[in-house]
Recover the amino acids of this structure.
């Protein structure tokens, strides 16, 4: 009975977490919001979503093959699907197919594999993809449309959808401004926020997602549900989402109180644009966010404040992608200065002093 | 009683139900016992018997030598077959000197010394001597000679003896069973130890997943006002000495210090029972309860096992393997050591023999780190496993040391939680070994350097003295070199070398 069972030192037990399971749960959490938006924006959105995710997986496979890494085993971790999914969610729903493919190349090949693949990238791949597209094709990337729910009278048929996505035949008079874009444009025309707010969808429509916006970002409620599901599953913790939204809300609320004509309210900033999607699914990306809880709070706050700054003072109406990328760049430094205190040592790593000797009991 | 939180930790699948309701059963005496001279931290014991000697149960067959060591005693009566090299229960699979005893089946006790009549009026030294003579070591797994820890009362101001009944390792139930079946013996042993240490207070900490043990121990302790039993949260690694002290007293042991520096000494519950036997009945430590469990074991049991029993015999007694085990572990699944073969003896620190199936071990190929930070969240020592392992992979041990890899006690929480199945503890064990080697080498070099410098100074001084003496004797001819200078130099050098 001599069984050689030596492999490595312990432990000889393992929790049931795995990279694949983690990614799968994130995809699952994204599903309700995505399905709702695919319904809302119809066939062109479904086509663009499929093309983008497919392109990401194809580019990932190509990069892995070129790097000589196992292709099938690595693809099974679902990380490329997740990147493609998030990238697609951040595109205008009726954008042409090549935008998705180009975004996939920048996201996967440039932002991820040129750094060494999964876990090595400094910047969030999906956001790099989106940002490159936004800077290179600002018009295509900001051509929003009003909701055209599937099976409704105004919805394009599958044939129309092919023409929109692959033929570049964007029908006239469907485009609409996003709420953030509308307010920004009106401000440049010296129309105060208090007036322009009358033309954006109501709070409930904003919350439930019946509004113009990117392919997956519109439904704050469904994204929140997905985020809470991830928290319940302990995939993410509350630190990043809460600090992103807290930072944004506090900044917006303070300035709104000071000058309501110039600055939109905190609630408006929370429910518009990609705030929820960014806070729950983009800023929380493991690879590009700090590893300690304290670091995550700093990172989230930074994102929140930057989102507000960009939305109000920069050239773009929306700033989630830029804010997250900027904070991604700070992640290594945040990590360095937010290491936890080691047991029995002070913050500098010196042993703690001995406490005064315990006194005898009376 | 107020408890204090400890950092990090995990909640593994405990699977204690495999053996927790199995009462302790005695193993039939095996045909041979293999008693290694080193079953403890410190120097190996010195053999006292020869081939062919007849020994009685409880007779000392190897004496403790040096400051840190423990004696070995015959677990039963019989004949010494030989003293030879046998594979040690250590992952290296290296042999060590082992006494092989053939039991004669009579199990006759030797003439034991008189029990200590009233230990509570006895001098602490008498108790410590008895504990040392009885070969008692920490039975939680570390196997540190207990008498040394009982001596701490002389050097430090102590206020609490903390008995560790946490048993936070999954599967293991030996301490649970001992607490349930021998509560009075544990409490008596604990009170004797507290007397030897001079601590007014005894706290027995038991994880709350052992409600019967808590109930039984509380009842047994109720007669003694100085003895408290507390249930501590189920949170691996609660049984770590420093963490248990923090949970119970709120005191955080500084790095490189002992819990005794904070006035607390920690002993395992089974050690207390061994002390009870040694003091009240003069019986040395010759047997212990071993949990034989795991999915691959046909009938998991808690077995009263003579020290030196081969693991093979123990596994056979428990019905053998139901399926082929993926790993056979000496100790718990989190901090236990893999066994190189089943052909090794049970020693004083063996708390469990686990035969685990592939499903239980759940070993998967390692994938890339996704920086999820779980390892940082769970690390009870407040370290950053993700960063340390990255440095160690690049063989940058110095940076890993700066991040505190030497503070890691290999509890395994980070490896357990890692979604990428990175063998973090394996990296840290490697780094700790390599860093220890480096430091030893450094110290050696420094010592050689110091010795060389001292020697140069000594030779110069001797030469100076010689010149001065010569100059004093022959003031007229100071420029003439002494005729015997070469000889004198050689003599000085020789002196310096001795």
């Amino acid at each position: 009975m001599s069984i050689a069972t030596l492999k490595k030192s312990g432990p000889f037990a393992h929790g049931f977490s795995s990279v694949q399971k983690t990614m799968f749960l994130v995809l699952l959490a994204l599903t309700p919001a995505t399905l709702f938006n695919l319904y809302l924006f119809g066939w062109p959105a479904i086509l663009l979503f499929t093309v983008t995710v497919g392109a990401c997986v194809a580019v990932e496979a190509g990069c892995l093959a070129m790097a000589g890494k196992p292709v099938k085993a690595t693809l099974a971790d679902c990380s490329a699907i997740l990147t493609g999914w998030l990238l697609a969610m951040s595109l205008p729903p009726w954008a042409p197919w090549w935008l998705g493919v180009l975004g996939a190349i920048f996201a996967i090949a440039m932002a991820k594999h040129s750094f060494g693949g999964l876990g090595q990238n400094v910047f969030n791949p999906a956001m790099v993809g989106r940002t490159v597209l936004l800077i290179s094709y600002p018009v295509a990337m900001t051509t929003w449309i009003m909701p055209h729910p599937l099976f409704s009278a105004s919805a394009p048929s599958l044939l129309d959808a092919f023409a929109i996505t692959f033929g570049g035949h964007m029908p006239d008079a469907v485009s609409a401004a996003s709420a953030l874009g509308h307010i920004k444009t009106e401000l440049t025309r010296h129309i105060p926020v208090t007036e322009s707010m009358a033309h954006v969808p109501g709070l409930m429509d904003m919350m439930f997602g019946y509004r113009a916006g990117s392919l997956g970002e519109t439904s704050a409620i469904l994204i929140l549900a997905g985020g809470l599901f991830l928290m319940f599953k302990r995939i993410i913790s509350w630190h990043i989402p809460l600090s992103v939204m807290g930072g944004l809300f506090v900044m917006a609320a303070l300035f709104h109180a000071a000058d309501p004509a110039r600055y939109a309210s905190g609630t408006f900033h929370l429910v518009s644009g990609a705030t929820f999607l960014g806070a729950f699914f983009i800023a929380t990306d493991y690879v590009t966010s700090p590893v300690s809880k304290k670091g995550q709070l700093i990172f989230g706050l930074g994102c929140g404040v930057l989102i507000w700054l960009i939305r109000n003072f920069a050239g773009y109406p929306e700033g989630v992608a830029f804010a997250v990328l900027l904070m991604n760049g700070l992640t290594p430094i945040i990590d360095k200065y937010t290491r936890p205190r080691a047991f029995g040592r002070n913050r500098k790593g010196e042993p703690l002093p001995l406490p005064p000797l315990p006194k005898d009991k009376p | 009683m107020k408890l204090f939180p400890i950092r990090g930790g995990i909640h593994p699948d405990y699977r204690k139900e495999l053996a927790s309701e199995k009462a302790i059963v005695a193993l039939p005496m095996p045909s041979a016992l293999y008693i290694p001279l080193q079953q403890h931290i410190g120097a190996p014991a010195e053999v006292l018997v020869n081939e062919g000697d007849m020994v009685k149960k409880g007779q000392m067959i190897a004496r403790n030598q040096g400051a840190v060591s423990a004696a070995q005693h015959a677990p039963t009566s019989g004949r010494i077959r030989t003293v030879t090299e046998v594979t040690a229960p250590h992952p290296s699979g290296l042999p060590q000197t082992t006494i092989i005893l053939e039991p004669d089946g009579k199990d006759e006790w030797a003439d034991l010394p008189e029990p200590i009549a009233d230990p509570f009026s006895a001098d602490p030294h008498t108790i410590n001597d008895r504990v040392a003579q009885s070969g008692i070591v920490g039975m939680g797994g570390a196997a540190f000679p207990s008498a040394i820890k009982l001596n701490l009362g002389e050097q430090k101001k102590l206020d609490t003896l903390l008995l560790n009944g946490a048993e936070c390792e999954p599967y293991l139930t030996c301490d649970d069973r001992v607490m349930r079946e021998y509560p009075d013996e544990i409490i008596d042993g604990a009170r004797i130890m507290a007397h030897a240490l001079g601590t007014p207070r005894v706290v027995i900490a038991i994880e709350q997943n052992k409600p019967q043990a808590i109930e039984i121990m509380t009842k047994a302790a109720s007669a003694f006002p100085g003895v408290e039993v507390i249930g501590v949260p189920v949170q691996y690694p609660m049984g770590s000495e420093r963490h248990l002290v923090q949970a119970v007293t709120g005191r955080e042991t500084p790095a490189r210090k002992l819990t005794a520096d904070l006035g607390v000494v920690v002993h395992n519950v089974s050690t207390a029972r061994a002390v009870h036997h040694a003091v009240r009945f003069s019986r040395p430590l010759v047997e212990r309860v071993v949990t034989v469990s795991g999915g691959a074991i046909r009938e998991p049991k808690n077995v009263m096992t003579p020290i030196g029993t081969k693991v093979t015999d123990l596994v056979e007694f428990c019905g053998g393997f139901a399926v082929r085990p993926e790993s056979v572990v000496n100790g718990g699944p989190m901090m236990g050591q893999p066994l190189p073969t089943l052909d090794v003896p049970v020693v004083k620190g063996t708390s469990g023999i686990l035969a685990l199936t592939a499903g239980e071990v759940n070993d998967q190929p390692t994938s890339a780190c996704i920086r999820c930070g779980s390892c940082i969240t769970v690390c009870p020592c407040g370290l950053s496993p993700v960063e340390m392992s990255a440095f160690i992979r690049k063989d940058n041990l110095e940076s890993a040391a700066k991040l505190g890899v030497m503070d890691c006690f290999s509890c395994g929480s980070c490896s357990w939680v890692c979604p990428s199945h990175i063998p973090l503890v394996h990296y840290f064990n490697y780094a700790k070994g390599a860093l220890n080697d480096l430091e030893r080498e450094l110290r050696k070099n420094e010592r050689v350097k110091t010795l060389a410098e001292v020697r140069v100074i000594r030779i110069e001084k001797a030469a100076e003295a010689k010149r001065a003496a010569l100059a004093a004797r022959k003031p007229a001819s100071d420029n003439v070199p002494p005729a015997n200078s070469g000889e004198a130099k050689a003599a000085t050098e020789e002196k310096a070398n001795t």
